[in-house]
Amino acid sequence: MPDYDLDRVRADFPILSGGEVIYLDNAATSLSPRQVVDALADFYLNVRANVHRGLHRLSARSTEMYSEARREVADFIGADPGELVFVRNSTEALNMVARGMGLRRGDAVVVSVAEHHSNLLPWMRLRDEVGVELRVIGVSPEGEYDLDALAEAARGAKVISVAWVSNVLGSVAPVEEIGRIAAEEGAAFVLDGAQGVPHLPTDVRRLGVDFLAFSAHKMLGPTGIGGLYIRSEAMEELAPLNLGGGMISDVTLDGYVPAPPPERFEAGTPPVAQAVGFAAAVRYLRSLGMEAISSWERELAARAVEGLSSIPGVRVYGPPPGRERSGVVSFNVDGVDPHDVAAILDEVAGIAVRSGHHCALPLVRGVLGVQGTVRASFYLYNTEEEVDRLVEVVGEVAGGA
Ligand code: PMP
Q1: Could you tell me which of 371, 345, 342 has the C-alpha nearest to residue 355?
Q2: Cα–Cα distance between 334 and 344 in angstroms, integer?
Q3: Measuring from each residue's beta carbon to the nearest atom of ligand 1, which residues come in under 6 Å?
Q4: Out of 3.30.310.10, 3.20.20.140, 3.90.1150.10, 3.20.20.70, which CATH number does the structure's domain 6-24+290-399 have?
Q5: Catalytic residue from among 24, 204, 359, 398
């Protein structure tokens, strides 16, 4: 059992009441507790005004709530509020970094083959349009890095950009070692934290990152908002993705003076309601404790790996038992298309999982050698009974295959 009251937690998530759905698609997006939806509703019903330039009381309240949300989310990752930019999602954050760094022809960027497309395509575009050299390092089918190969690839590189946690394998990258290699080379260290920040205690200083991307919707928060941590020293080097209202301190017809960060990176009306909901989500996570959440997920994942691995004809991917794994478990049933497995799980037992390439085709096709996998992914509200039901139904699918 986790270090928090699981029944009380589950009661906060209306989708889980009634027992119709076993929600194991948390790596795609998480559920939201009432507290997050209440915070959104309160903002929309009682405040709603735009931030910044308004002098009236509702605008002042909205501005205050937006700033407070920034403080809370920044604090959750161990950053100063001025180092946190609100973006739409991890994808936008990674595009902002790739686009904004001013990389030139011949500059080298290191990524791994295990990246989500959102941490691959923005760099591939720089390769194709600017002539940046993209160095792609391998990982093992278990998601392990060869740190010597990484150090070799990083020689003279300007950027190392990798995922903290693989959304396919659940493997956890050796972030501190990668950070050390980046620092030795003077390369910027970009961490795709989409699957890390929601599940692991996060401290940007300890991680040693220059940039950290994450999405609220994967950590109980609303859709449409995410965070980009930018180390203060890296702020001045980054060009904003969008220009317009809210990001300047002066404009003439000859040019403009950008506002100080983080506003510089947030042109246009910001996602105020979503930020308020995001802050409610991190308050909720904090109330349970990230250590408690991550150790519960590890227990659930270990139980799933053990159960699924014991079924003849089921192949489980990712770190072997005993090695660090977050709450993501990908598998396949011999002779059954992953989409069919997912459809049967939903139909027979209301179990929600994801199937396919998980936006990581070079990993799934190139390293695992399959067209897709079935992925069960756990979060703080899942139970051992839900894992056991998954194993049971997969056993039936495998038995009938
Ligand atoms: N990186 C990883 C590792 C992910 O798992 C995801 C989401 N599946 C993303 C980036 C992109 O996140 P978003 O869709 O919220 O932009």
Answers
A1: 342
A2: 15
A3: 27, 89-91, 116, 118-119, 163, 167, 192, 194-195, 215, 359
A4: 3.90.1150.10
A5: 359
Ligand 1 atom nearest to CA at 88: 16
Q: Nearest 10 degrees: CA dihedral of 37, 38, 43, 45?
A: 110
The length of the chain is 401
Token digits of residue 11 = 């009661």
What average pLDDT does this structure show over 149-162? 98
The pLDDT of residue 401 is above 70: no
Question: Candidates 88, 95, 113, 116: which one to mutate for ligand 1, based on the most atoms within 8 Å of Cβ?
Answer: 116
Count of CA atoms in the C-beta half-sphere (13 A) of 45: 6
Average pLDDT over residues 245-252: 95
What pTM does this model have? 0.98
pLDDT in tens, 276-301: 999 999 999 999 999 999 999 999 99
- Long-range contacts, stretch 345-350, CB < 8 angstroms, 24+ apart: 345/374, 345/390, 345/393, 345/394, 345/397, 348/393, 348/396, 349/22, 349/389, 349/390, 349/393, 350/20, 350/21, 350/22
Q: For tokens 């923005």, what's the residue?
A: 122
Q: What is the dihedral of CA 28, 33, 35, 37, to 10 degrees?
A: 60
Q: Is 108 helix (H, G, I), strand (E, B) or coil?
A: strand
Q: Which CATH fold topology does 36-286 show? A: Aspartate Aminotransferase; domain 2 (3.40.640)
Per the annotation, the verdict on 359 as an active-site residue is yes
Domains 6-24+290-399 and 36-286 are alike in CATH topology = no
Percent of the chain with pLDDT over 70: 100
Percent of the chain at pLDDT above 90?
A: 98
Domain layout of the chain by residue ranges: 6-24+290-399, 36-286
111 beta partners: 136
Please report the DSSP string for 231-296 in residue order: -HHHHTTPPPS--STTSEEEEETTEEEEPPTTGGG--SS--HHHHHHHHHHHHHHHHH-HHHHHHH
Take atom 4 of ligand 1 and give the residue whose Cα is closest: 194
**What pairs with residue 22 in β-bridges?**
351
